[in-house]
Structures are given as C-alpha cells and as structure tokens.
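Hey,
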Amino acid sequence: LPGRETEFRDSLTQTFDYAREIGAGAVHVMAGKPGDVASSVWKPLLVENLRLAAQRANGLRVLIEPLNTTDNPGYAYGTLAQANQIREAIASEAVCLMFDAYHEAMGGNDPVASWRRAPAHWMPCPPPGFAAPKTAPYSWTWVCGSPMRVAADRD
C-alpha cells in the first residue's frame, strides 16, 4: 500500500527466513485495502513490491490470493481474474495464485471451473477447525470430490 513501502521491503527478509526455517515452500503476500487511493497509484506499487518479493524469494513461491468482496470489501483484488492480471504484470514464475474455493464461490463463480485455470495452490477443503459461514453458496462435499476429476480432465 502507498506509504508502507519501506515496511513491506523490510519485512521480506524476515518473512523468507522464517519460511525457510519451517520448511515452507511458499509465502502468502497480502495486498491490503487501498481505500480511496486511485488504482493508477496502488497497482503499479503492488506490482513493484511483488516483483521485489519474487526476486528475493530464492526458490520459494510468492502466493497472491483474491478475497471475495462480500467478506473483504475494498480488498485490492476480489476475483481470480483480477489477481491473475496482477500476476501476469509481474511476469515471474515465482508469483503464483492461491485459490480458495470459498472466496471464488462467494464471488459468484464455480470453484471447480475456476480451478481449471491452474492456480498454484488449491485449498479445496476446509482445514481442521475451519468454520465457513453457513451461507456458503456450494457444498464442501461437491467441491472436495471435484479436484481429482478436474486433474484428470487437465491431463
């Protein structure tokens, strides 16, 4: 976000060091909520910051994730398509999409159809203790059973 560039850059070394220490293969980088700042200001800064993260990743993946605008109004990107535009602008193999079926469905999209776009990290089923809102517009059973069929379709 504008005004927090130094904080972001200073945090990269520590973040990547921690990730390597625990054996993580990726780091999820949050974009934040730009508020009233024009997209012509925050988008180039976001791309610049993510390019820097990709350069410093040294073998780790940098994950970006769209968050639905129902639960996260004002977040920088609310759809897979918007996050993918950011990823493509960065033009680095290190930057990948993190895809959460819940966010995709809450945005009015079919999570399985969207998954066919081959994001880097698929969170198809809730982790232990996760409590999705009771209004989730899809069935976890349906979503969790689909990746194997989708994977076969993609080969």
